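We emphasize that the prediction below concerns an isolated chain of 75 residues; any contacts that depend on oligomerization or on bound cofactors are therefore not represented. The input was used exactly as deposited, without trimming of termini.
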Amino acid sequence: MNNKVSQFYRIEKHCIRCGFCLDICSWDALDAPGKGRAFTIEEDLCPGCGICVDCCPVGAIQKVGAGEDDAAADR
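Result of the prediction step, given as a token string:
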């Protein structure tokens, strides 16, 4: 894996490392590099389906750019 971050999603700091996303991803696009290190989503493997977002119990996986349109609309 080349460790490029997904262009579709990002994993926020409040991730609890439960592993649900690792288990549910059919494309093996998520990686758990080791204790204390943040999970990553591999760009080359992630098709952008969003199932990881739906399964995250704490909402730690966010769509890239989410909230940016909302912030622009508030200006």
